[in-house]
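Technical annex B. To support the medicinal chemistry partners, we prepared a structural model of the target in complex with phosphoenolpyruvate, based solely on the information shown next.
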Amino acid sequence: MLTILRRIVLEFSQASELDQALLRLVSQVKNALSTQCCSVYLADHEKQHFILMASNGLAADAFGRTCIGFTEGLVGLVGQREEPINIANAQQHPDFIHAPEVEEEHFKAFLGTPIIHQRKVLGILTVQQEQARFFNENEEAFLVTLSAQLATALASVEAQGMIELSHSNQSLGKNLAGIGGSPGVAIGEMIVVHPKADLSKIALNKVSDSEQQLMIFDDAASRTVAEFSQMSEKLKAIISDNSLDIFDVYKQLLESDNFKAEVIVKIKSAWNAQSALKLVVDSYVMQFESLDDEYLRERAYDIKDLGNRLLNNIQNLAEHNQQLPEQFILVAEDVSAAMLAEYQHLGLLGIVSITGSNNSHTAILAKALNIPAIMGVDYLAIRQLHKKQAILDGYACQLYVTPGDALINEYRHIVAAENKLYAQVKEEEHLPASTKDGHNVSLLINAGLSAGFEYSQNVGADGVGLYRTEIPFMNRSCFPSESEQTVLYRQVLASFADKPVTMRTLDVGGDKSLPYFPIIEANPFLGWRGIRITLDHPEIFLVQVRAMMKANHGLGNLAIMLPMISSITEVDEANRLINQAYYELTSELSCDENDVLDRPQVGVMIEVPGIIFQLEDLAEKVDFFSVGSNDLTQYLLAVDRNNSRVASLYDFYHPAVLRALDYIAQKSQQRDVPLSICGELANQPTGALLLIAMGYKNLSMSAHSLAKVKWVIRHVNYHQLKQILERVLSFTNTSDVHSYMHEQLVSLGLGDFVHARLQ
Ligand code: PEP
Ligand code: MG
């Protein structure tokens, strides 16, 4: 049954025509359950009814025509109750409605299950039978499981607008929704880059150029073998030999005559390289999955992985010669921070990422670069977007594909209005960040991208509160040397010569990876990240802090910050290494009393919740605290900041997060430890005001947000903020915090900033 179920779902998600896919689906389900009728209804939420889309058993004339209101009939009842309904004799049920055009008079037994995606009913799947009987438990379980799996595929079909388009005359462009990554509007051509290779999403295709396909496959196979060798070489230093055996298994499989020969045979019979690979991998997977031996069954996973790696190389070869237009919107399955670093200079207007969420590092970097972005766009047919025109609305989190002229004009007006408002706040950017009643705070910038750096110096910042050193490490093929790092850090420190610059030691892992230092983990955000990696690799840590201190020689404005600290031992070890580097350098640079090498201040990021309960211990060891509210929120709420499925649960204004931030501020004040915050919360006018009221004196944010945050601060009274905070900290629900803050900003005369467009 499981194999049948998988096959039905797989075929459904690979189909390109919705109507055909639904027809095949109902026939397959009818056969699988040996019943006499299977039908599928899809919801039209605007019109509040279900439409009979396909059936094997009901009259074909009714497809696309028969509509059942959300509160009508048995289908409506399944939708309303959001649970399966199993009835022995439907016609005797009080909710049964007779619809003569579907010709169902002879059916008595009825089983209907809702198809629900993210709490939204997308449709209803029903089976019917002439004999009056209840469907048995296995039949019900099959239909429920199938509906749950179909939901994801259907949601993406809905996102593609195919449901509406297939039964109406609308010719509007598609409108795809996502999660806000970075505000702003981009209008331009979309370029789809390196979709994450996934054999299960490949549609089978035949071609006439078999010779070329053979070359592509051969080349991809050699590249994949080479990659495995490189990977296992690089990982040798980090993980045990046993764990590396898997690479040998992959290489052997790839070089085995059977596997390659089978793909070649398929290519010779006119399948393109991707299809041939898919057909062979699928048949191997089926064989392995049907074996009794558990170990061998698990090898199916290896074969799938190998297939995807090969596919990746086949696709890269096909895209290799792609010419980029002068300006473009980058679309990819998973736009990584490294990809952003790679494309930012090449005319990047905007970003659309199928995966990811609003606080992933890609989104943070996009904000820092002022590039509009939307993440988590639930869309499977990503390749269809290639070279199409689009409007990307990073405020409303919408992507309009092939928009009409009227919509483009409307958006040009939005951009103009936004620019006007921004010009207004820019007028005050060089004035002090001081409230109307004279409470002063420092506004600093988060930096790390060389391209944004020049811009950052002119925004009226009081220094750099967070320099993310990992970004310059990304777009390279090996770790930068000590002298390369020294030059880079010197540039940053010299640009802010009279102002403090806080440099964070390398914080990779989680959703930030280095191409030359792969970290493969099941749970990366809880794994080998930040300080955990650099303490395990003192040679990387020492080179970096030496470079920082060398760059600081003669300037003296450096502070070093340690990421992801979760224990006092880590601080002790890091301090020991920093001291070692300091003493080595003092003697290497032959410093004397006239030429002193400054020992920089050392602080820690407060972003792992556990360490909040050791702030007093920490206060003994470090010079300052800086709250990383992005990770702190993720770990406090147990919500992956990068996962679009739980994005709505990730909220800085959750009472637990706000109370934790307030507690940190109180503890720091008690112990007299300088405190700053460098997470995204400080970028938001609402967040900045609450933080100031809590006692945060140093707010670090993206350069682009600084002017608007400063403007807001300059137009409020500190004593009012204190009252607002007191009320906010009494709320038990996130939604209450949002609505109260919304009202307060309006009554403080900051209406424009309440509008999502400037938040
Ligand atoms: C944070 O976690 O808030 C932070 C500033 O660090 P990053 O976003 O780089 O993890
Ligand atoms: Mg962090």
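Notes passed to the chemistry partners:
The CA atoms of residues 289 and 297 lie 5 Å apart.
Residues 563, 607, 628, 630-631 surround magnesium ion (ligand 2) (CB under 6 Å).
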